[in-house]
Amino acid sequence: MALGNFVRKVWLHNHLLHRLNSSQIRLLNNRYAHAIIASTMAIVPLSIVRGLVITASVICETAGFNDAALWFMQLQIGFLALAPLVLNIYIAVHWAVRNRLSQIYCIALSISTLMIFRRILDNNAQFFLDISIPMALVSGIIGNVLQEKVSKILLKLHQWKDNNNITVISFFTTLAIIALFSSIIKLGADNELNSAMHFFSSLSLYFYPTDFLHGISYVLLRSVPWFFGLHGYYLFMDIDVAFTAAAKINISDWHNGHGALNILSPVFYDMWCNSGGTGNTLSLIICILMQKKSTHRRLLAVSAPMALFNINEPLIFGFPIVLNPVMIIPFVLTPLLSYFVAYGATYLDVIPRISEIVSWSTPGPIKVWLASGHSLNALMLYIFLVIVGVLIYRPFVKNSLKQTSTENTDLDLLTGEMKIHQPTDFEMVPNYSHVVEENSYIEAQLQIEKLQTSGKFILYFQPQVRLSDHKIVALEALIRHQSDDGKITPPVFLKYYERTGLMPEIDFWVMEHALSYVRENMSEAENMAISINISPQTLIDYRLLNVVRKVLAEPLPAGWKLEFEITESQKVQEPVRVAEVLEKMRNLGIKIALDDFGSGYSTLHYLTRYPLDKIKLDRSMVLGLAKPDGFNFLKQVVKLCTVIQCEILIEGVETAEELDQVKSAGIELCQGFLFHRPLPGKMVCQLLTEQRTKELQTASNLQPDIVSEGKPCLHSRPDGA
């Protein structure tokens, strides 16, 4: 028996949870999921304010201030109507920021698409506030995706020198396409459109809780959409409005002696299935409170007070439940089990049926006491279901809150201190905790926001030296973060941009600012290269060629070359497309270097597939010199690189002994702390000025006091601006 339990546990951990988290990775890397989550997060404050307004209305009504209660209730209706429009606009903002497009045009296109769709579906529609969340989502995504595809096609058809041209033309072209196809659908398939709308309307009736089975569907309708950050109430508002109206009539008839009370009503779900909010999240809060060392306890300061009034958005997005295929299980299971128990207890008359309409924002115990006609049994059942919810949530919470092992340390973005995480109980799941930590999209968004509000990005440069004369022949541009107090943080934050698909934004920023800095501050240095790291995400970004042409529109100083470093240690997802892009870059005069050679994926595959001008040997090659055959191995690698006629540079040389061995292996270019660490732009300018002064002295054989009349390296811009 013990062996059987162990086998089942191994299967659960190694298969079910591993598959769930693999699906989470795919979702986190899906840009449509990103757009939905970003938009739904944007309306969270609106939902919270609406909940507080409803609470204020209930308090005023209880205190006898009926006019104030009515005013607050009308106000919350306005918030409710505004939510879809805000969501639609924020999809456009998210898409514009993510794809470096004009926010104004994206917002205008998104709203225009929404108005067109609204008019098609309802001939009598005069204003677009009367819309649903699904319509707002669909119209926002369709409009912006179509504009993106139109932009790609226009870029292929014509080499645009001005980005404004492509933006304006793609906007009007996309709008024309949407209007044209909408007109065709409306005129040519109006009957089919009406039939489809009728089908969806009848389909939604299936979720209307008229009996026990349909009541189960209603529970799922309210809880499952939260996986994507969508409130089930917002999605099917018509059902809830009709359900509430029917419940009021039923209770009124019962009070007048004209019929029996129904078991199911909106208050029934609010009492038994939404304690703390959808998903019975009051139980989840208690579970977090029980984990004394949990980092999520900081959520309680915001989520616990809100949960008293059944507002659970801070917890759902903060824990998170959203896009978490593990935590969605207890989130759905807990209210579902509560439904079964409460329905059975009501059916058997263990507890009375709902006899009063009580606002959903009323705290749980008070709501149960009032709605049940002051039933002690109902109150005891409420406490029992909260405890059952704790038992369901606890194993999931206990394991989800445990972080990666001590091997997976992390560096705080602002303090620079290492954070050590405790080991997890999921040892049987390969890399389970690592996957959860490294692919938390929401955590990455929070870290990026932390960066953007606490400082600025700056540039550092690390010189590359020619060993024959120790001359600086190239500079690698490196991004750093400078906090408001002046502290410099190394690029550990790049993993968050990579996780959210925003590496192109970083690469484009470095490219634009590095070339600008070279032009303005290093124009006296000649015949050098400025090297920019390009991530795999950027290599397949359709905007890359356009951005490169833009930054190269103004020529570099005499003899300077732009060099792109592609990272061998990161797997390229579309190798055929990458090869085509790199070939186009070389045609523009850009040198291609392979970075971190020997440290990552298909090393030889890179050498044969991609057009390369330089190979940068990883520091692991230098460290390997300490091994018995390390030097011979390095020489063989150098011979291999020589065969494909590439320049060879080795990274990480830190001692004189390592330098001697590197020279003996036939390597000419070097980059390492023995020569120069990454330096601010001003210090690099000083080095280049000194180097040019020595060259002039040697060439003209003049005294130092005469040579000093040469032009120095200018500093017209602040470092990294």
What can you see in these coordinates?
Its main location: membrane. It is found in: Cell membrane. It comes from Buttiauxella gaviniae. The chain has 721 residues and is α/β, with parallel strands linked by helices. It is built from 31 helices and twelve strands. Helix 3 (44-63) packs antiparallel against helix 4 (66-99) and helix 5 (103-121) packs across helix 6 (133-157). The longest helix is centred in the first third of the chain and has 34 residues, at 66-99. The chain is elongated and about 115 Å long. The model is unreliable at 403-439 and 706-721 (pLDDT under 50).
Question: How is this fold's topology laid out?
Answer:
Layout: H1 2-28, H2 31-42, H3 44-63, H4 66-99, H5 103-121, H6 133-157, H7 163-188, H8 190-205, H9 212-223, H10 232-235, H11 237-255, H12 266-272, H13 281-290, H14 300-308, H15 313-318, H16 328-347, H17 364-371, H18 376-400, E1 410-411, E2 418-419, H19 432-438, H20 441-452, E3 455-466, E4 471-483, E5 488-489, H21 494-499, H22 503-521, E6 529-534, H23 536-539, H24 544-551, E7 561-567, H25 575-587, E8 591-597, H26 603-609, E9 614-617, H27 619-623, H28 630-643, E10 647-651, H29 656-664, E11 669-671, E12 679-680, H30 681-700, H31 704-707
Helix pairs in contact: 2-4, 3-4, 4-5, 4-6, 5-6, 5-7, 6-7, 9-16, 13-14, 13-18, 16-18, 17-18, 22-24
